[in-house]
Protein backbone atom coordinates (compact mmCIF):
# COMPACT_ATOMS: atom_id res chain seq x y z
CA UNK A 1 0.00 0.00 0.00
CA UNK A 2 2.85 2.44 0.75
CA UNK A 3 5.47 1.10 -1.65
CA UNK A 4 7.59 3.95 -3.06
CA UNK A 5 6.47 6.38 -0.34
CA UNK A 6 8.94 7.96 2.09
CA UNK A 7 8.05 8.40 5.76
CA UNK A 8 9.81 10.31 8.53
CA UNK A 9 8.88 9.24 12.05
CA UNK A 10 10.48 11.45 14.71
CA UNK A 11 11.39 9.75 17.98
CA UNK A 12 11.23 6.30 16.37
CA UNK A 13 14.07 4.61 18.27
CA UNK A 14 11.66 3.64 21.08
CA UNK A 15 8.04 3.16 22.13
CA UNK A 16 5.21 4.51 20.00
CA UNK A 17 7.42 5.95 17.24
CA UNK A 18 9.11 2.58 16.75
CA UNK A 19 5.69 0.87 16.57
CA UNK A 20 4.52 3.35 13.93
CA UNK A 21 7.74 3.06 11.88
CA UNK A 22 7.39 -0.77 11.96
CA UNK A 23 3.81 -0.63 10.67
CA UNK A 24 4.69 1.80 7.85
CA UNK A 25 7.72 -0.30 6.85
CA UNK A 26 5.53 -3.44 6.80
CA UNK A 27 3.32 -1.65 4.27
CA UNK A 28 6.37 -0.91 2.11
CA UNK A 29 7.29 2.69 2.98
CA UNK A 30 10.93 3.74 3.08
CA UNK A 31 11.68 5.02 6.58
CA UNK A 32 13.72 7.80 8.15
CA UNK A 33 14.32 6.78 11.77
CA UNK A 34 15.06 9.50 14.31
CA UNK A 35 15.66 9.66 18.05
CA UNK A 36 18.29 8.95 20.67
CA UNK A 37 19.75 5.66 21.88
CA UNK A 38 22.72 3.30 21.66
CA UNK A 39 24.22 3.34 18.15
CA UNK A 40 24.27 -0.48 18.03
CA UNK A 41 20.57 -0.76 19.04
CA UNK A 42 19.54 1.82 16.43
CA UNK A 43 21.58 0.06 13.74
CA UNK A 44 19.82 -3.22 14.64
CA UNK A 45 16.42 -1.55 14.08
CA UNK A 46 17.58 0.10 10.83
CA UNK A 47 19.14 -2.99 9.27
CA UNK A 48 16.21 -5.13 10.54
CA UNK A 49 13.72 -2.99 8.60
CA UNK A 50 15.81 -3.28 5.41
CA UNK A 51 16.27 -7.04 5.79
CA UNK A 52 12.77 -8.02 6.96
CA UNK A 53 10.60 -5.52 5.06
CA UNK A 54 12.75 -4.94 1.96
CA UNK A 55 12.51 -1.14 2.34
CA UNK A 56 15.19 1.54 2.46
CA UNK A 57 15.80 2.83 5.97
CA UNK A 58 18.14 5.60 7.11
CA UNK A 59 18.82 6.98 10.57
CA UNK A 60 18.87 10.75 11.19
CA UNK A 61 20.17 11.77 14.62
CA UNK A 62 18.74 15.32 14.52
CA UNK A 63 17.81 16.78 17.92
CA UNK A 64 14.12 17.79 17.80
CA UNK A 65 14.70 20.49 20.44
CA UNK A 66 16.70 22.50 17.85
CA UNK A 67 14.77 24.34 15.13
CA UNK A 68 17.65 24.25 12.62
CA UNK A 69 18.18 20.53 13.14
CA UNK A 70 14.47 19.79 12.57
CA UNK A 71 14.41 21.85 9.39
CA UNK A 72 17.71 20.29 8.27
CA UNK A 73 16.29 16.77 8.70
CA UNK A 74 13.35 17.50 6.38
CA UNK A 75 15.61 19.13 3.78
CA UNK A 76 18.12 16.25 3.94
CA UNK A 77 15.34 13.65 3.49
CA UNK A 78 13.91 15.40 0.42
CA UNK A 79 17.43 15.76 -0.98
CA UNK A 80 18.24 12.08 -0.40
CA UNK A 81 14.98 10.42 -1.50
CA UNK A 82 13.72 13.15 -3.82
CA UNK A 83 10.34 12.95 -2.03
CA UNK A 84 8.59 13.07 1.34
CA UNK A 85 5.11 11.58 1.66
CA UNK A 86 4.45 10.90 5.33
CA UNK A 87 5.57 12.98 8.30
CA UNK A 88 4.83 11.64 11.78
CA UNK A 89 5.68 14.13 14.54
CA UNK A 90 6.05 11.78 17.49
CA UNK A 91 9.19 12.70 19.49
CA UNK A 92 8.17 13.80 22.95
CA UNK A 93 9.24 14.06 26.57
CA UNK A 94 7.43 14.38 29.89
CA UNK A 95 8.10 16.04 33.24
CA UNK A 96 5.67 16.34 36.16
CA UNK A 97 5.51 18.97 38.90
CA UNK A 98 2.96 21.46 40.26
CA UNK A 99 2.90 24.63 38.16
CA UNK A 100 4.51 26.79 40.86
CA UNK A 101 7.44 24.37 41.11
CA UNK A 102 7.77 23.63 37.39
CA UNK A 103 11.40 24.33 36.34
CA UNK A 104 11.42 26.89 33.48
CA UNK A 105 14.07 24.89 31.60
CA UNK A 106 11.78 21.78 31.63
CA UNK A 107 8.84 23.90 30.44
CA UNK A 108 10.96 25.17 27.53
CA UNK A 109 12.30 21.73 26.59
CA UNK A 110 8.80 20.22 26.50
CA UNK A 111 7.46 23.11 24.40
CA UNK A 112 10.45 22.82 22.02
CA UNK A 113 10.30 19.05 21.48
CA UNK A 114 6.56 18.31 21.83
CA UNK A 115 5.26 21.37 19.95
CA UNK A 116 7.77 23.62 18.15
CA UNK A 117 9.50 20.70 16.40
CA UNK A 118 6.18 19.89 14.69
CA UNK A 119 5.82 23.51 13.54
CA UNK A 120 9.31 23.49 11.99
CA UNK A 121 8.97 20.08 10.32
CA UNK A 122 5.50 20.89 8.94
CA UNK A 123 6.64 24.29 7.63
CA UNK A 124 9.38 22.53 5.65
CA UNK A 125 7.30 19.56 4.49
CA UNK A 126 4.08 21.27 3.34
CA UNK A 127 5.40 23.02 0.18
CA UNK A 128 6.94 19.75 -1.00
CA UNK A 129 3.83 17.68 -0.22
CA UNK A 130 1.60 20.22 -1.96
CA UNK A 131 3.81 20.03 -5.06
CA UNK A 132 3.47 16.22 -5.01
CA UNK A 133 -0.30 16.66 -4.50
CA UNK A 134 -0.17 13.97 -1.79
CA UNK A 135 1.02 14.05 1.77
CA UNK A 136 0.07 12.78 5.19
CA UNK A 137 1.03 14.67 8.35
CA UNK A 138 0.23 12.88 11.60
CA UNK A 139 0.93 14.57 14.91
CA UNK A 140 1.10 12.28 17.93
CA UNK A 141 -0.70 14.38 20.53
CA UNK A 142 -2.31 12.70 23.56
CA UNK A 143 -5.49 12.46 25.59
CA UNK A 144 -3.69 15.39 27.22
CA UNK A 145 -4.23 17.30 23.96
CA UNK A 146 -7.96 17.25 24.77
CA UNK A 147 -8.22 17.21 28.57
CA UNK A 148 -5.90 18.08 31.45
CA UNK A 149 -4.34 16.40 34.49
CA UNK A 150 -2.56 17.94 37.44
CA UNK A 151 1.22 18.42 37.44
CA UNK A 152 1.53 18.38 33.64
CA UNK A 153 1.39 22.11 32.79
CA UNK A 154 3.99 22.00 30.01
CA UNK A 155 2.89 18.67 28.51
CA UNK A 156 -0.83 19.58 28.46
CA UNK A 157 -0.06 23.05 27.05
CA UNK A 158 2.18 21.57 24.33
CA UNK A 159 -0.28 18.82 23.37
CA UNK A 160 -3.26 21.23 23.26
CA UNK A 161 -1.04 23.47 21.10
CA UNK A 162 -0.27 20.54 18.81
CA UNK A 163 -3.99 19.88 18.34
CA UNK A 164 -4.45 23.58 17.45
CA UNK A 165 -1.57 23.47 14.98
CA UNK A 166 -3.13 20.35 13.42
CA UNK A 167 -6.40 22.21 12.78
CA UNK A 168 -4.66 25.19 11.14
CA UNK A 169 -2.53 22.99 8.88
CA UNK A 170 -5.61 20.91 8.00
CA UNK A 171 -7.32 24.12 6.84
CA UNK A 172 -4.29 25.49 5.00
CA UNK A 173 -3.77 22.26 3.05
CA UNK A 174 -7.44 21.38 2.44
CA UNK A 175 -8.05 20.28 -1.15
CA UNK A 176 -4.35 19.98 -1.95
CA UNK A 177 -4.04 16.21 -1.49
CA UNK A 178 -2.33 16.79 1.85
CA UNK A 179 -4.01 15.96 5.17
CA UNK A 180 -2.97 16.79 8.72
CA UNK A 181 -4.42 15.01 11.75
CA UNK A 182 -3.59 14.37 15.38
CA UNK A 183 -3.69 10.99 17.08
CA UNK A 184 -4.52 11.17 20.80
CA UNK A 185 -3.40 8.06 22.68
CA UNK A 186 -4.26 7.21 26.26
CA UNK A 187 -1.72 5.25 28.33
CA UNK A 188 0.79 3.25 26.30
CA UNK A 189 3.35 1.19 28.21
CA UNK A 190 6.60 2.82 27.03
CA UNK A 191 9.68 4.16 28.88
CA UNK A 192 7.89 7.54 29.14
CA UNK A 193 5.07 5.94 31.19
CA UNK A 194 7.29 3.42 33.00
CA UNK A 195 8.90 6.37 34.80
CA UNK A 196 5.48 7.67 35.94
CA UNK A 197 4.57 4.18 37.24
CA UNK A 198 7.85 4.07 39.22
CA UNK A 199 7.13 7.55 40.64
CA UNK A 200 3.66 6.43 41.86
CA UNK A 201 5.15 3.25 43.38
CA UNK A 202 7.84 5.26 45.20
CA UNK A 203 5.45 8.03 46.37
CA UNK A 204 2.82 5.63 47.73
CA UNK A 205 5.15 2.82 48.84
CA UNK A 206 3.31 0.29 46.68
CA UNK A 207 4.51 -2.33 44.16
CA UNK A 208 5.02 -1.62 40.43
CA UNK A 209 1.97 -3.81 39.72
CA UNK A 210 -0.25 -1.89 42.16
CA UNK A 211 1.04 1.41 40.75
CA UNK A 212 0.26 0.22 37.21
CA UNK A 213 -3.31 -0.67 38.21
CA UNK A 214 -3.71 2.70 39.92
CA UNK A 215 -2.42 4.60 36.86
CA UNK A 216 -4.90 2.82 34.57
CA UNK A 217 -7.86 2.93 36.99
CA UNK A 218 -7.53 6.70 37.43
CA UNK A 219 -7.94 7.54 33.71
CA UNK A 220 -8.43 4.62 31.32
CA UNK A 221 -11.79 2.81 31.72
CA UNK A 222 -10.71 -0.20 29.60
CA UNK A 223 -8.00 -0.84 32.24
CA UNK A 224 -5.76 -1.95 29.37
CA UNK A 225 -2.80 -0.19 27.77
CA UNK A 226 -2.95 0.98 24.15
CA UNK A 227 -0.20 -0.73 22.11
CA UNK A 228 2.35 0.91 19.77
CA UNK A 229 1.14 -1.51 17.05
CA UNK A 230 -2.45 -0.24 17.43
CA UNK A 231 -1.17 3.32 16.99
CA UNK A 232 0.85 2.19 13.95
CA UNK A 233 -2.37 0.75 12.51
CA UNK A 234 -4.14 4.07 13.07
CA UNK A 235 -1.39 5.99 11.25
CA UNK A 236 -1.57 3.44 8.41
CA UNK A 237 -5.33 4.03 8.20
CA UNK A 238 -4.73 7.80 7.96
CA UNK A 239 -2.38 7.05 5.04
CA UNK A 240 -5.05 4.99 3.22
CA UNK A 241 -7.51 6.25 0.60
CA UNK A 242 -10.35 5.72 3.12
CA UNK A 243 -8.91 8.68 5.06
CA UNK A 244 -8.56 11.10 2.10
CA UNK A 245 -11.26 13.39 3.56
CA UNK A 246 -10.15 13.15 7.19
CA UNK A 247 -8.19 16.30 7.98
CA UNK A 248 -7.70 18.88 10.72
CA UNK A 249 -9.11 16.56 13.36
CA UNK A 250 -8.17 14.25 16.23
CA UNK A 251 -8.53 10.49 16.60
CA UNK A 252 -8.65 9.25 20.20
CA UNK A 253 -7.28 5.80 20.99
CA UNK A 254 -7.60 5.93 24.73
CA UNK A 255 -9.71 3.07 26.12
CA UNK A 256 -12.49 5.56 26.93
CA UNK A 257 -10.35 8.14 28.80
CA UNK A 258 -11.87 11.23 27.15
CA UNK A 259 -15.44 9.86 27.04
CA UNK A 260 -15.75 10.52 30.77
P1 LIG B 1 9.50 7.10 24.55
O1 LIG B 1 10.25 7.78 25.63
O2 LIG B 1 9.43 5.61 24.51
O3 LIG B 1 10.01 7.59 23.12
C1 LIG B 1 10.31 8.91 22.84
C2 LIG B 1 11.13 8.99 21.59
O4 LIG B 1 11.45 10.36 21.34
C3 LIG B 1 12.46 8.24 21.70
O5 LIG B 1 12.79 7.66 20.45
C4 LIG B 1 13.45 9.37 22.04
O6 LIG B 1 14.79 9.08 21.68
C5 LIG B 1 12.86 10.48 21.19
N1 LIG B 1 13.29 11.81 21.61
C6 LIG B 1 13.23 12.40 22.83
N2 LIG B 1 13.77 13.62 22.79
C7 LIG B 1 14.20 13.82 21.52
C8 LIG B 1 14.86 14.89 20.85
N3 LIG B 1 15.21 16.02 21.49
N4 LIG B 1 15.15 14.74 19.54
C9 LIG B 1 14.83 13.59 18.88
N5 LIG B 1 14.21 12.55 19.47
C10 LIG B 1 13.90 12.67 20.76
O7 LIG B 1 8.03 7.74 24.62
P2 LIG B 1 6.63 7.32 23.95
O8 LIG B 1 5.72 6.99 25.05
O9 LIG B 1 6.84 6.35 22.84
O10 LIG B 1 6.19 8.74 23.38
C11 LIG B 1 6.12 9.05 22.01
C12 LIG B 1 5.09 10.15 21.82
O11 LIG B 1 3.80 9.68 22.21
C13 LIG B 1 5.35 11.41 22.65
O12 LIG B 1 5.06 12.56 21.89
C14 LIG B 1 4.37 11.26 23.80
O13 LIG B 1 4.02 12.51 24.34
C15 LIG B 1 3.21 10.61 23.09
N6 LIG B 1 2.28 9.92 23.99
C16 LIG B 1 2.69 8.90 24.79
C17 LIG B 1 1.76 8.26 25.60
C18 LIG B 1 2.13 7.10 26.48
O14 LIG B 1 1.28 6.69 27.30
N7 LIG B 1 3.32 6.54 26.37
C19 LIG B 1 0.43 8.68 25.60
C20 LIG B 1 0.05 9.73 24.79
C21 LIG B 1 0.98 10.34 23.97
The CATH H-level superfamily of the largest domain is NAD(P)-binding Rossmann-like Domain
Strand residue content: 5-15%
Note the gap between the termini. 36 Å
Shape: globular
CATH architecture of the largest domain: 3-Layer(aba) Sandwich
Structural commentary:
Helix 1 packs across helix 8 (228-238), helix 3 runs parallel beside helix 4 and helix 6 packs across helix 7. Helices cover 50% and strands 13% of the residues. The protein has 260 residues and is of the alpha/beta class. The protein folds into two domains: 6-186 and 227-259, Rossmann fold; 189-225. It has a seven-stranded parallel sheet, sandwiched between helices. The model has no long low-confidence stretch (mean pLDDT 98). Bound molecules: nicotinamide-adenine-dinucleotide (NAD). Nicotinamide-adenine-dinucleotide (NAD) is lined by residues 11, 13-17, 34-37, 63-65, 90-93, 113-114, 140, 142, 185, 187-188, 190-193.
Which structural traits does this protein have?
260 residues; alpha/beta; 50% helix; globular; seven-stranded parallel β-sheet; Rossmann fold; 7 strands; binds nicotinamide-adenine-dinucleotide
Short précis:
This protein has 260 residues and is an alpha/beta fold. The protein is built from eight helices and seven strands; from the N terminus they run E-H-E-H-E-H-E-H-E-H-E-H-H-H-E.
Fold blueprint:
Layout lengths: L5 E4 L5 H12 L3 E5 L4 H15 L3 E4 L6 H15 L4 E4 L14 H29 L2 E6 L12 H21 L4 E8 L5 H14 L3 H12 L8 H11 L11 E4 L7
Helix pairs in contact: 1-8, 3-4, 4-5, 6-7
Bound molecules: nicotinamide-adenine-dinucleotide.
